[in-house]
Amino acid sequence: MTHRVRAAAATAAAVLCATALGGCGDGGGGSESSPAPSSAAPSSTPSSAPSPTKAGQSRITVKDFTFVPAELTVRPGAKVTVVNEDDTAHTVTANGSKPFDTGPIGPGKTATFTAPDKAGDYPYVCSIHPSMKGSLTVH
After folding, report:
1. Distances (CA, A) of 68 to 7, 38, 51, 118
2. Which residues contact 77 (CB under 8 A, 6 or more apart)?
3. Where do the structural domains in the chain lie, given as residue ranges?
4. Beta-carbon neighbour count of residue 82 at 10 Å?
5. What pTM, to 2 d.p., does this model score?
6. Which fold has domain 58-138?
7. What 3-state DSSP class applies to 7?
């Protein structure tokens, strides 16, 4: 009978450990500066095709000194969230008259900007790392 009790205790301990370890993912927390969980797996290669707006949600991820997607298509006035997954600050700064500029976004932080109301192509860069380039298309 002692063997059965030990086996049951070992099984219970294993279940408890598995449950505890399974809960050690992203704690969420709802902080404004924490990136929102994504239902899609992150892509390690930037897409060259424009990304359409999905139900008013648009997102640019900064990872490995690259904007993902490199080209994003949105409607006029859409809110665009920028998530910085790098370990250094970046910006999303439109060229020319600068109709949008996030300012520096720290590592692990997010920022939101409003797309211009006027249709057109808006190339942008990271003002800290000008070799980082992307394009926002508004239509």
Report:
1. 50, 14, 10, 23
2. 114, 115, 116, 117
3. 58-138
4. 21
5. 0.61
6. Immunoglobulin-like (2.60.40)
7. helix
